[in-house]
Amino acid sequence: MNLVITVSFKCATSNFHFFFISISTSIVGYMMLFLRGFLYLLLVSVVAQLISLEGYEMLSAAEYSEHSVTEHLQDVMSFLSFVLFLYVSRHSEPMKIATTLLAALMAMMFVRESDSLLDHYVFDGAWQTVVLFILGCVVVFLWGQFKAIYPSMKEYAKHASFGTFLAGFVTILGFSRLMGRGSFWEAVMGDAYMRVVKNIVEEGIETLGYTLIFISAMELALACRRQQRKALAH
């Protein structure tokens, strides 16, 4: 009888311990999700504040040109995204090709955003030469393994960051361009049309797109890092 009670008590204690660990793990998981969401909200808020900085500082003289804080933010975001995708390509064999292509894409976008500096300090049209060089490097890298592109992209598509990347990419190449059409703002504002308003909207949306891509690159790099730790643990 005592043996049965002892065994029952141990089982109950074990079940309670397991339940407590499960609850604790769930709470920690929810807290991490909340923290991550808060950090991304903070990042987007900081970006929005930096975009508005030129307007507050220069008032009606603000132009939001290629030398503005907004443009520099785009440069930083695209470069950091390039570095993060390159990191994943070096540490994840299944996604090596996909992330190498993404790194090359972000490198080309960074060069494109820096076109005015290259034109001024190198030669006119230098950014096009650099982009062609990057494309050449990509072709050389892919030579003989074109069939492996789809499986690698399919592996990347399994990650949640894929959707965030697509959202950012579409925002940059599609939504920002459509919302930044001069004809639209001329129709809306009429005789009161100001080009700076068009620039703020277009460049602001574009910067949001780069921010989303940067977030997706961070998420992918963190996921890759977690997989590495699990592999080392086993």
Automatic annotation (TrEMBL):
Keywords: Membrane, Transmembrane, Transmembrane helix. It comes from the Bacteria. The chain crosses the membrane at residues 126-144, 156-175, 207-224. This is Uncharacterized protein. It comes from Marinomonas aquiplantarum.
